[in-house]
Amino acid sequence: MKEIEIIKPDDWHVHFRDNEILKAVVPETTRHFVRSIVMPNLIPPILNARQAIEYKKRIKKAIPAKDSFEPLMTIYLTEKTNKNELKDAYNSGAVFAVKLYPAGATTNSESGVKDIKKVMPVLEAMAKIGMPILIHGEVTDKEIDIFDREKVFIDQKLDFICKELPELKVTLEHITTKEATEYVKEGNKNLVASITPHHLALNRNAIFVGGIRPHNYCLPILKRETHRQALIKVAMSSNPKFFLGSDTAPHLKKYKESDCGCAGVFNTTYCMQILAQIFENHNCLSNLENFTSINGANHYKVNINKQKIKIIRKNKPIKFEDKLKINDEEILIFTPDFPVYWEVIT
Questions:
Q1: What contacts 214, CB < 8 A, 6 or more positions away?
Q2: What is the distance between the alpha carbons of residues 141 and 236, in angstroms, rounded to a whole number?
Q3: Could you give the CA distance from residue 169 to residue 147 in angstroms, rounded to a whole number?
Q4: CA distance 100 to 118
Q5: Residues annotated as catalytic (active site), given as ranges
Q6: What does the domain layout of the chain look like in residue ranges?
Q7: What DSSP assignment string belongs to 150-183?
Q8: 250 touches 215 (CB < 8 A)
Q9: Does the predicted TM-score (pTM) go above 0.85?
Q10: Rounded distance, CA 216 to CA 284, Å?
Q11: What dotted CATH number matches 3-345?
Q12: I need a surface site. Which of 62, 227, 300, 334 has the fewest CB within 10 A?
């Protein structure tokens, strides 16, 4: 197959950061995507509708005039979130969803939730109005191995939420394990999951083989090959419970390569090209549209996009730009360790 045409996709999980980084990275997403759910873990975090509206304005200023793009805003859930204010924000259209970070689970999550039971009244209110909850599914207990934190979260936290509130629209974001794929497949109709391109492309060897490779470090961390294969299987299956959430997460190179080693992979620039190659490698190109353009929209009950994009297969591997310049700094762009022959024609 030399060419495919699909519905222009959505990315249901992006980090735009703010200020100069925001201005540089927003066009990388808007070039190929129609909508994105924007994460609220800024410093300070987006805690209410007013802050979400102001952040959306800053995002819109960074969208190139040629691109038609809608940022979907979120609020950062804390144990002090007011459920009535949240309902008003959702009903007004200012906010699309709520993000639940376990405190300390990932970048800028220190203000997140420590005790799930303390936010249950908010989740109950969300269930009643159909407001989605987006969950970073990892426990943060120091005694739990970092490679087991997603599985333990499912067993100890997510299962409790889903059983108490089966009507709550839950997205378990950026899943990384076989256990997560099985739990979501077997769960109630309102439970879905997003999957990133880097978790489909890499296993944990990509962080450690040949030396420490900090630009492949992300949270949840890459897992064993058996888990990557489980993600591949559900992504290729056209199961409507699984869809793209790139979790594109820019950090300046100096912070990725410092003693901080910030978690996050900036993958949006070549996201669709990489996905097309992965789907072709598994003889499932016909299912790419469901994964990137249909399943997520159906879950969130928004219209399927009318625009189309063409993805064309080249005779030679495409050449990747390896960095995005921001003044005198740079962000490294994610590229996989296999050749990619597909190019997007918008």
A1: 256, 257, 261
A2: 33
A3: 26
A4: 12
A5: 247
A6: 3-345
A7: HHHHIIIIIHHHHHH-TTS-EEE-S--SHHHHHH
A8: no
A9: yes
A10: 26
A11: 3.20.20.140
A12: 62
